[in-house]
């Protein structure tokens, strides 16, 4: 039962992460295009022409605060993809040592890494919670668009909480696999 909820949470976060990543790509492309066109319209032979002045008057140029918005979305996007990656065993791994271990030792090692990863994500979530509280308390904003920084922290915190929940689920599953020899989740590195 909980596995179904965890899998749904991981898929939802991956979808949201993909949507945010797509929005950041579009924002970046539009801003670069605007910056390029602005430069072209201000250089000879177009500089000062009626067409150039009319287009520049519309505000054609880079998107104001584009880097601040991308920066804010990136932390969420990273955390949004962690749950599906963790659930499917898709993290990068080096098999030089583990390939020589027996199945039981590999299961034990997978459980150890899963527990450590869950602990680290819980710690990151806790720190993000503290950071969100601090940014709210002090009213910090970004320089250009005065975007409240705590919004970005809160978005990253949402992703970190989902990541930690999935990581705890994976850690418990890996511990059960190590203890019983059963297969609950895809093997590490299989990304199936």
UniProtKB/TrEMBL annotation:
| Gene Ontology molecular-function annotations | transmembrane transporter activity
Can you tell me which family this protein belongs to?
Answer: Belongs to the TRAP transporter small permease family.
UniProt source species: Jannaschia rubra
Topological relation to the membrane, as annotated: Multi-pass membrane protein
Protein name per Swiss-Prot or TrEMBL? TRAP transporter small permease protein
Keyword Membrane tagged: yes
| Gene Ontology process terms (BP) | C4-dicarboxylate transport
Oligomer and partners: The complex comprises the extracytoplasmic solute receptor protein and the two transmembrane proteins.
- Which key words are in the record? Cell inner membrane, Cell membrane, Membrane, Transmembrane, Transmembrane helix, Transport
Q: Which InterPro entries match?
A: DctQ, TRAP_DctQ
Q: Give start-end of the signal peptide.
A: none
Subcellular locations according to the entry: Cell inner membrane
């Amino acid at each position: 039962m909980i596995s179904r909820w965890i899998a749904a949470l991981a898929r939802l976060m991956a979808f949201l992460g993909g949507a945010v990543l797509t929005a950041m790509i579009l924002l970046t492309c539009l801003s670069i295009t605007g910056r390029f066109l602005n430069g072209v319209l201000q250089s000879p032979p177009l500089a000062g022409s009626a067409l150039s002045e009319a287009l520049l008057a519309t505000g054609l140029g880079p998107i104001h605060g584009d880097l601040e918005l991308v920066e804010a979305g990136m932390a969420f996007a990273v955390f949004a993809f962690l749950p599906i990656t963790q659930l499917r065993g898709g993290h990068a791994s080096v098999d030089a040592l583990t390939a020589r271990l027996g199945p039981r030792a590999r299961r034990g090692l997978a459980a150890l890494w899963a527990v450590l990863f869950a602990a680290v994500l819980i710690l990151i979530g806790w720190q993000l919670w503290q950071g969100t509280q601090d940014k709210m308390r002090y009213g910090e904003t970004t320089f250009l668009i005065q975007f409240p920084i705590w919004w970005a922290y809160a978005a990253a915190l949402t992703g970190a909480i989902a990541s930690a929940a999935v990581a705890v689920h994976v850690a418990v599953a890996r511990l059960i696999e190590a203890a019983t020899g059963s297969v609950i989740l895809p093997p590490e590195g299989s990304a199936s």
